[in-house]
Amino acid sequence: MTTTMGTPMAGAFAEPHPRERVRGEGGASDFAWHAYVVVLAAVLVVTGLIWDISWHMSIGRDTFWTPAHLMLQAGGLLAGLASGALAAYVTFRGTPEERSSAVWFWGFRAPFGAWVCVWGCGAMLTSAPFDDWWHNAYGLDVRIVSPPHVLLLIGMMSIVLGALLRSLALQNGGGARAARAAVLFDVSAGLLLALLGILMLEWSNRNAMHSGDFYRAMAKGFPLLLAAVAVAGRSRWPATTAAAVYTLLMAVTSWILMLFPATPKLGPIYQPITHYVPLEFPLLLIVPAFVMDLTWRRARAWPWWKAAVAMGAAFLVPFALVQWPFASFLMTHGRNWFFHTDNFVYWQPPQYEKWHFIWRTPPAGDPPLAVHLLLALAYASLASAVGMAWGGWMSKVRR
Amino acid sequence: MRLATPLRCVAALSLGVVLAAHVGSPDAFYSGKAGPYSIDVAVRPPTVVPGIAEVYVLVHDPAGVGHVVVRPVFWRAGTKGAPAGDDAKPVDGVRGAYLGQLWLMTSGAYAVNVTVSGDAGTGSVDVPIAAVATGQLPLGTGLKVLLGVLGMLLIAGLVAAVHSAVGESLVPPGEKIPPTRLRHADMATIIAMPVVGIIVFSGFRWWGAEAARYQRTLYRPVATSTAVRDSAGIPMLTMSITDSTWRAGRTSPVMPDHGKLAHLFLARTGSLDVFAHLHPSMPDRATLATPLPALPAGTYRVYADIVQETGFQRTLVDSITLPAPLRRTGEGRLGPDDTWFTAPATKVERSGAESSLGDGLAVRWLGSSPVTVGTVGVLLFGLHDAYGRPVHVEPFLGMLGHAVVMRRDGGVFVHLHPSGTQSTASQLAFALRDRGDTTSDGRLQLDSAAMNMAAPASLEEIRFPYAFPSPGEYRVWVQLRADGRVRTAAFDIDAVAAR
Prior knowledge:
heterodimer; A: mainly alpha; B: alpha+beta; six-stranded antiparallel beta sheet
C-alpha cells in the first residue's frame, strides 16, 4: 500500500504499510548480529551515563576508572570495535552481495549505522584526553555542559544513532528479521529519548513543571524525536514503545541504584547520603507518545504543515494534561522509594531542600501561561515538522 | 599533577604562581605536633578549583606509625561535612614520608586535616589553605597535535557521513547508486561543509568564552589604594580596600591574628635596605591605618596580611613612594610590637654566614647555600652571642620567630613562623567552628592567648618550614626577640632551580 501525498514531502512517507514491510523478503547479508551488538552497546552507553550522573551526585569523586565510566566506555568501544571489525570483514572478505549492501567510506565498506558507531566511538575517545586537559585547565567539571562533555555526549548519541540506523536498515529491508528489527529500532529510539531526557534535565526541574518555561523547553526537543520515531517505526506503536523503554530505563535504573550503598568522597557534604542518589522520576512522555502514534495514523495523509501542527498538539496537549497534575502529585506524595523525590545531592545545603517542593515563581513581567503554551505549541509543531522530515529520511535507509 | 616520589613532590612544590594568603608562594607548610607525633606537612593547592591538592607529610619518628590520613575540611561545612579521609601512601625510599591527594571542590578557606595513628595513639592537626584558581594550564604541543588530528578526522568523517546519509545509505542493497542520488549527495556534502565549519567555529568561540570566563575567576589581590599623610606631625599610612564587594560588606570580616588585625610590611624597592613590620588598626572594615616610623625617601612595596573569619588568609599588595624622608614632630608612637630596620643584608654564599645585630649577637644562616627551589626546610637560623653560645629566644607575637621572604622583584612575598605559613587564627577558627560553641552574634570569638604557640627556649637552630617557589634572588628578614628586644637580621640568598 502506498499513501498519496500532495505535498513536497510526500516522497518521504511513501512507504509500504508496516505490516506488509515486516513480511517482506529477507537478506542473508544483513549482518543482523551487528545490529544486536550495537544496540547492546547503546544500552551500556546510556545506562553507564545514568549511573555516572548518579555517581557524581552521590559519591562525587571522579576518575577514568569508575565503574560507571567503564560501562560507558565499554559501550563505546564495543560499538566501535564491532563496527570496525564488520567494516574490515566486508571490505576484505565480504562477498559482492555483502559489499553491495554496505556504503563506501574512505575506501572501506560497511553498513551506514556501523560508520556512525565508529564515528561516535572516535568522538568519545577524542573527548577523553580533551576532558582530562579541560579539568586541569579550568577545574574538575566546573560546568557539566563543557566542550569536551558535549563532544562525549555527541559521541554517545552517535553510538545510539548508529544502533538506530542499523535497526532501520534491517527493518526497512523487510524479511524475516524485520519485525525484530522494528523492536530494536524502538529500543534504540527509547535510548535516544533517554539521552534527550538527560540533556533536558536542566530545564525539567520538578518545581518548574507548573511554569510556561518548562513546557516551552520540552516542546523544543521531545516532539522532534517522537514524531521521527512515529514516522519511521514499523512496529504497531513505535513512539509509545520508545517512550516505554525510556520510562522503564530511567525508573528501573533509579530503583536499582538506590539499593546500593554510596557515601560522598568529596566535600563539603551537606546531605548524609548512604545510597546512590538517582535521577528524578521520568517524565510521562508515554502518554503524548501514544497520542502521537495514534495521530500519525491519520496525519500521514495530510499536508505536512497540517500534520506538523497535529503532531505538535498531539505532544503538547496530553503532555501538559498529565505532567501538570503528576508534578503536583510528586510534590505531595513523592517522598517514597517509587517516586524518590526525597533524594538530594550531597552538596545540597539542608536549608535549600524546601525549594524542591515550592513551585518556581515566574520572573516579573513573565507573560501569562496561555502565551507560553501557545509558544510551546508553535515550538512543538516546528519540532514535529523537523522530526517528520527526519523520520521520512529514516524510512528510506536501506544499508 | 600526580606525584609518586618525594623528588617529584619537591619539584611540584616549586611551581608557585600566585596565592591568596601570600604572593607567588602558593604552597602551605606546617611544622609541629599532631597529637603525640612531630610532623612536617607541605600542601600544594591546585591551580584550578575544583582541583586536586598534593599533601606531603613527614613523620619525624615514624616507628609504630600505622596510618596517615588526610581530609579536606571546607570552612562552611566543617569536619562534619568533610568526606571520609584518604590514606596517604608511604613514599618509597623516604622513611616516615607519606603522600596524599585531596579534592578541593569549592573556592574559599579549607583546612587540610592530617591524622596520624599508630602505637602512640592518634593525633591530628588542621593546616589551613586557600583554595583559589591561580593559573591556567596551557595546551601542550603534543596534545594540541593529537586533538587537532583527531578533530580533523571527526570533521572529515562527519562530512563523509552526510554524503552517505543522502546517497548510498538510501540505495537498496545490490543496486547501484543512481546518478541523481549521487548528485544530491554531492550537493548535500557541499552544503554540509560550511555548516560543519560553522559548528566547529562556534565550538571554538564557546571554548574561548569559557576560557575568558575562567580568567575572570582567577584570584587577584583585592584592589587597594595606599597613601601617606601627615596627621598632627605623625606620618600616617592608610591602606584602603577599594573593592566594591568588600566595601559593601559582602565579604567575611577580618579577625585578629595574634591580637593584630593586620600585619603590614614595607620594603624599600631596589636595595631592600629598609624594612618595617607594623600592625595597623582598622577604623572601618575596609581601611588599615598605622603611624609610620621616620622612613627614608624611596618607593616601598606594601604587603598586608589579614585573616578573614572564614579562615581565609589574604595578602593585600600595594606600593607607595616617599619623595622625601618622613619627619615625625608629633607625639604619636609606634605600637610596642611594631619594628623597623634599616641595614644592608648579609649575602649568603656559604652555610654559616652571619648577620651581626650590633650588640655582640648575631644571626647565623644554617641552611645550605645556594638553596634549591622546592627543597623543604631550608630556612634554618641560629641566634648566638659573641662566644658562639645559643641565646635565649623569647616569643614575639606568640611565635619564637618571624621570617619574611621576598623575591627581589616583589613577585614572591611570604610571612611565616617556625610553625609554618599558616595563620594561627585561621587554624583556631576551624577548630572553634567545629566545636560549635564559640560564636556570639554569629561572630567568632578568638582567644588571643590560645594563639601563643611558643615558650621561651634556647635553641641551636630555629627552623622555618618553607621551600622557595621559584628561582631568583631573595631577601630574607628574620625577626627574633632576645633580651626583651626584637632583633632583625637580613640575608640575601639565591634560589636555584632543582636539577
